[in-house]
Hints:
The complex is a heterodimer. By secondary structure, chain A is mostly helical. Chain A has 14 helices and no strands. Helix content of chain A is about 70%, strand content about 0%. Chain A is globular. The relative contact order of chain A is 0.19. The N terminus of chain A is likely disordered. In chain B, helix 2 crosses helix 9, helix 5 runs parallel beside helix 6 and helix 7 runs parallel beside helix 8. The longest helix of chain B has 20 residues. The chains are: A mainly alpha, B alpha/beta. The interface between A and B is large, with 47 and 47 residues.
Amino acid sequence: MSAVTADPVSPEPSRLAALGPAVEAVIVPIGAVAAAAALFSLFLLVLGKSPLTFFELLWRGGFGTAFSWQNTLIRTAPLIFTALCVALPARLGLMIIGGEGALVIGGFAAAVVALPMIGVMPGWVAMPVMFAAAALAGALWIGFVGYLRHVRAVNETIASLLMFYIAVAVLNFFVEGPLRSPTDPNKPSTAPIGADFKVGSIPGLDVHWGLVVGVVLAIAAHVLMTRTTFGFAARVTGGNVRAARAQGLPVGKLMIATCALAGACAGIAGYFEVAAVSGKANASLIAGYGFTGILVSFLARHNPIAIPPVAVLFGGLAAAGGLIQRRMGLPDASVQVLQGLIFLFILVSETVYGRLSLFSPETRR
Amino acid sequence: MSKFLLSRRTLLKSAAASLVGAPFVGGVETATAAGLTIGIVYVGPRDDFGWNQAHAVAAVELKKVPGVTVVEEENVPETIAVQKTMESMIQLDGAKLIFATSFGYFDPHMIEMAKKYPDVEFRHAIGLWQKDKHPSNAGSYYAYLHQAHYVDGIAAGLSTKTNKLGFIAAKPISSVLQNINAFTMGVRKVNPAATVQVIFTGDWSLPVREAEATNALADAGCDVITCHVDSPKVVVETAEKRGVMCCGHNASQASLAPKGFITGAEYKWATIYKNFAELLSKGEKLPNFERGGYDRDYVRNTAFGPAASEAARKAATAAIADLKANEPYVAGELKDNKGNVVVPAGKVVDNYDVFLETTNYLVEGVIGSAG
């Protein structure tokens, strides 16, 4: 694209140059998704299935009808929270993959604090308490991972993953033991929180309020990371820890605080699973939202503001999965193959940034 | 910097706007114009050699009924996902009847959907529905698999050489205890000297522990092993590898043990599914609480394998004939394995007696504890 760079004084190319990274940030992921879709089409052809039908059904099941949209959006909410749990620490260069554990502990905490309030307290008292308990439990859970990292230099990726197994064990121990409710003889659960404590739907939609809270949190996270000194310090730390230390930034506190915030996000996902969906804590909390959230965060390049639209994409994939299974006779795993391909291509596409001369007219690399 | 952020924001905004604006064109399309569409939801894979496969086998039968379209979805977790799967089957496929086959689908998921779609019938594959608590377009269906386990026991009791049999069970809950007891009663009816050793693994699907338990039972001298876990595949395969005989559970595992297979307890959900389809096609009301065993053709035994002796086949076939005639098989005096009398002498327990569903003990002849 040397034609554009020929005259560096003209205002046009400089605007294009400024736009470059933004356009790149949109074009590259879209290209990666398209490439994954192309490879997946080959996979379908090998199976003797029509890619055209597949993508048509994907569209219809995820976005093609009013019902499909609600189906997609209701699956979007937990993914926004769990993706934020990955994206925030990623800004500091920390890779937290155990958001699922914070979700489980958060949901469990919400159900537990509700127990003594059932039938005693009104909903407007209990609901904020449950919400806060879930956020706090999640914050402590991942905050502890940050603490281990800072104080003992424990690898946060492994620590957060292993903490997930502890979370599951804690949940199972209490739900199958001391807190088991007699109302569910064959699926051990805590006592139902009852209709008074349940979170309702957004008016006119069959989607609970978790979606709105998720979008608000994503915007808040974006503001925090780009418009505050905290966010600036976090990004400096993510860029170069030693430089940040040399500047006198409280790197340890930043790590723990960011991990705690991230954990709070995942904990809130658990709150909505309990308070808006199942009405009790049980093994259904372990549904894999935390792990899909990792994919969402990577696809959004750990950019909080990009997380909601990407979460919608993954929500749509999940929503359409059933329809594809039913209409095409494909196994459930086929949509997961597509998801996996998308993730792979996104990771590979990371190497493309800055290398496309179209987007970096002034410098050749 | 600010320019860059602004432009990205604008881009995202317009992208989001175009995504939201587009879809609401075109109405809901249904898969079939006429006839009856039935949806079946599974919690695991359809080919698990167990609980899910038992339902999937019935779905294949149901598909053969003229005018009936079956839509199936596997690996649906017990979360909001199952509500949306049911709704999708109703909205996009036009399903009029939904079979929810996993325990955790019932409350709150199936109940919520039944309230939301009063014109659609919902049925859940375990007896949880209560008339005063749950919507009238919802219901339960259940089959007395313990009757088939009783037949297993008779065949196994006549096939064992060591008089030691093994039972690998998931959790000590009523439906599992019933099967252990029925198997043991069958064994002891034809072979009073035999005992059944039980091992609880603690959960529905723990393949490693199931393999360990099978090996432990084989090491302890058991020469017939059976189980009640979600997928008996591991137990049956391990038993075959160890050269001991086995009985199946849930679906047919005959192909997994070409040498040691005796027979197995199988659900025959197809009978219920086809009956329900027929009733709905005729515009009749479905029963809310449907249950039964051999007498209603809701359970069956897998065809005898090579390990079943001639005597075992004969006795088992006779027992099946009795059960088909609704002959009770539980009668006093029956003691639990701690010596307490649970059914007094002279009393006969009818096959439909709810007493059987409250089982919280292991009968005499079982080595192991339910507590």
